[in-house]
Design a protein that fits this description.
Shape: globular
Strand content: 5-15%
Bound molecules: adenosine-2'-monophosphate
Number of helices: 19
Strand order of the largest sheet: 3-2-1-4-5-6-7
Structural class: alpha/beta
Radius of gyration: 26 Å
Distance between the termini: 58 Å
Length: 462
C-alpha cells in the first residue's frame, strides 16, 4: 500500500462507498472518513477489505493521510452538512489544496462556496455525480465546475472513474414516459407485459435511452404472485429537489422551462393522494373509451414522446444559455451533451445529435432552429397532436405532452396575444406598451377611460 492517498472522500453512504470502490479499482489509493466513524471500520472490514483504502477516525488524521495538493471530496447530504465540513476542513488544509463537493448541491451554493474557499487560498470544485448507485460504481456522469485552476489536478481521476461511451435536466423525460404508460394502460387497456413489448421496440428506435430501457425492465418485473410489481407501487411521487431548483431557476431567469415545471407539479399532484381519492369518488368526468386503430395510436405515441423530448432539451439548453449569460459562465454546449451520454440517467442516443447541432453551429440560439431537430419535431407533430387531443377528449391527464406542444406552438408563432395583456396592464396599472409601428424601446401610455390621467408607472422586465 502507498504511504499517502491520491484522494480523500468524506461520506460513506451509498454513493460515496460505490464511488471510492470505483476509484480504487482504477488504481487510486483513497482515504475515507465519515461523520459516524464506525461506518469507516464497517467499510474497511466489508466491501473495502484488502483494498487500497486508508481509513481515518478523525478529520486531522484523514487530511494528513492525503498527498499534496490534497483532493478532498465530500459526498454528504446537500445543504448544511457541506458547509459544516468546509468550515472544518479550511483550517486543516494548505494553499493549493482542493475541496470537492460531489453531492447534488444547488448551483448558487456552489458559486458561494467557490468564492469562500478561494478567499482562503484553496480551490473548490462542485460536481454533479449522476447515475445512481450503479453509476457511481461502474462509471457515473460527472459534471464539474468551480475553480478552473483545480481542473488539471482532478481531471485524471474524474475522467478515469467517469462513464466511457464510444464516439453530464432531467426529470421531464420521466414524466412524459409515465404519460405514455398511463395512456396505454387506461385508454388502450394494455397490461404491463404488453406494454413491455412496446417499450422494448421503442428502445431500438429514436427513443433509445436509459429511461426507456429501465421502463422496459420495470414493466416486465413480476411480484411474488407473478403479477406486474409496478401495479402494486403506490402512486405518490417523491422528489429530492433538483427538479424544483431547476424550475425555480428558470422562473428567476425568465425562461419558459415548461416541461420541468409541469413535471414538478405533476409529482406534487400525485403526492396529494388522499385528496385525489376523495375527489375521484365525488367528481365524475369522462371515462376513457378508445375507438380507433390501436397500433396507429401506439406509433403516434412514440412520435409524441420524441417531439416532447426534443422540446424538453430545447428548453433545458435555453435555460443553460441564459444562466451562462447571467453568471458569466463559458459553457461548452456540445461537450455537455456528450458528458451526459454515459452514466447519467438522461443518457440517450439523441445526445449525439445535440452535439452535432452545436458542432454545425456553435452559436445556435435554440435547438429547435437546428435543421435536424426542426425536421424531427415537424414530422412528429401530427402524431403528437392526435395523442394530446385523444388524451384530452378521454379525460386522461398528459400535462408534459401538452405543455411541450403548447410551447412548440407558441415558439413558432410570430405574434402571440400578449398585445392584449400589455393593453390590460396599461389600462389597470399604467404599465405602458411598445407599438408595432414604432421602434422597440419606445413606450406609450394611453388614457383608456378618459379619466385616467397621463402618469405612467415605470416599466420592468421579469
Ligand atoms: P452519517 O453516516 O454520519 O449519517 C449521506 O447521508 C452522508 O452524509 C452520510 O455519510 C452521512 O453521515 C452524511 N451526513 C448527513 N448529515 C450530515 C451532517 N449533518 N453532518 C455531517 N455529515 C452528514
Amino acid at each position: 500500500m502507498k504511504k499517502k492517498a491520491d484522494i480523500g472522500l468524506i461520506g460513506l453512504a451509498v454513493m460515496g462507498e460505490n464511488l471510492v470502490l470505483n476509484m480504487e479499482s482504477k488504481g487510486y489509493t483513497v482515504a475515507v472518513y465519515n461523520r459516524t466513524v464506525t461506518k469507516v471500520d464497517g467499510f474497511l472490514e466489508g466491501r473495502g477489505k484488502g483494498k487500497n483504502f486508508i481509513g481515518a477516525h478523525s478529520l486531522e488524521e484523514f487530511v494528513a493521510s492525503i498527498e499534496r495538493p490534497r483532493k478532498v471530496m465530500m459526498l454528504v447530504k446537500a445543504g448544511k452538512p457541506v458547509d459544516d465540513f468546509i468550515e472544518l476542513l479550511i483550517p486543516l488544509l494548505e494553499p493549493g489544496d482542493i475541496i470537492i463537493d460531489g453531492g447534488n448541491s444547488h448551483f448558487p451554493d456552489t458559486m458561494r462556496r467557490t468564492k469562500q474557499v478561494e478567499s482562503k487560498g484553496l480551490l473548490y470544485v462542485g460536481t454533479g455525480v449522476s447515475g445512481g448507485e450503479e453509476g457511481a460504481l461502474k462509471g457515473p456522469s460527472m459534471m464539474p465546475g468551480g475553480s478552473p485552476e483545480a481542473w488539471p489536478h482532478v481531471k485524471e481521476i474524474f475522467q478515469s472513474v467517469a462513464a466511457k461511451v464510444d464516439g453530464g435536466v432531467p426529470c421531464c423525460d420521466w414524466v412524459i414516459i409515465n404519460e405514455a404508460y398511463h395512456l396505454m394502460k387506461d385508454l388502450l387497456g394494455m397490461d404491463a407485459f404488453e406494454q413491455h413489448e412496446v417499450f422494448k421496440k421503442w428502445n431500438k428506435g429514436v427513443l433509445d435511452s436509459y429511461l426507456i430501457e429501465i421502463t422496459t425492465d420495470i414493466l416486465d418485473f413480476k411480484d411474488e404472485d407473478g403479477s406486474p410489481l409496478v401495479e402494486k407501487i403506490l402512486d405518490t411521487a417523491g422528489q429530492k429537489g433538483t427538479g424544483k431548483w431547476t424550475a425555480v431557476t428558470a422562473l428567476d431567469l425568465g425562461i419558459p422551462l415548461t416541461l420541468i415545471g409541469e413535471s414538478v407539479f405533476s409529482r406534487c399532484l400525485s403526492a396529494q393522494k388522499n385528496l385525489r381519492v376523495k375527489a375521484s369518488k365525488t367528481i365524475s368526468g369522462k371515462k376513457p373509451e378508445f375507438r380507433g386503430d390501436k397500433q396507429q395510436f401506439i406509433d403516434d405515441l412514440e412520435q409524441a414522446l420524441y417531439g416532447a423530448k426534443i422540446i424538453s432539451y430545447a428548453q433545458g439548453y435555453d435555460l443553460m444559455m441564459e444562466a451562462a449569460r447571467e453568471y458569466g459562465w463559458n459553457l461548452n454546449y456540445g461537450g455537455i451533451a456528450l458528458m451526459w451520454r454515459g452514466g447519467c440517467i438522461i443518457r440517450s442516443r439523441f445526445l449525439g445529435d445535440i452535439k452535432k447541432a452545436f458542432d454545425n453551429n456553435p452559436r445556435l440560439e435554440n435547438l429547435l432552429l437546428d435543421p435536424f431537430f426542426k425536421e424531427a419535431v415537424q414530422s412528429a407533430q401530427e402524431s403528437w397532436r392526435r395523442v394530446c387531443a385523444t388524451a384530452l377528449l378521454n379525460g386522461i391527464p398528459v400535462p408534459a405532452l401538452t405543455s411541450a406542444l403548447n410551447y412548440f406552438d407558441g415558439f413558432r408563432s410570430e405574434r402571440l396575444p400578449a398585445n392584449l395583456l400589455q393593453a390590460q396592464r396599461d389600462y389597470f396599472g399604467a404599465h405602458q406598451y411598445e407599438r408595432v409601428d414604432k421602434p422597440r424601446g419606445e413606450f406609450f401610455h394611453t388614457d383608456w377611460t378618459g379619466y385616467g390621467g397621463s402618469t405612467a408607472s415605470t416599466t420592468y422586465d421579469v
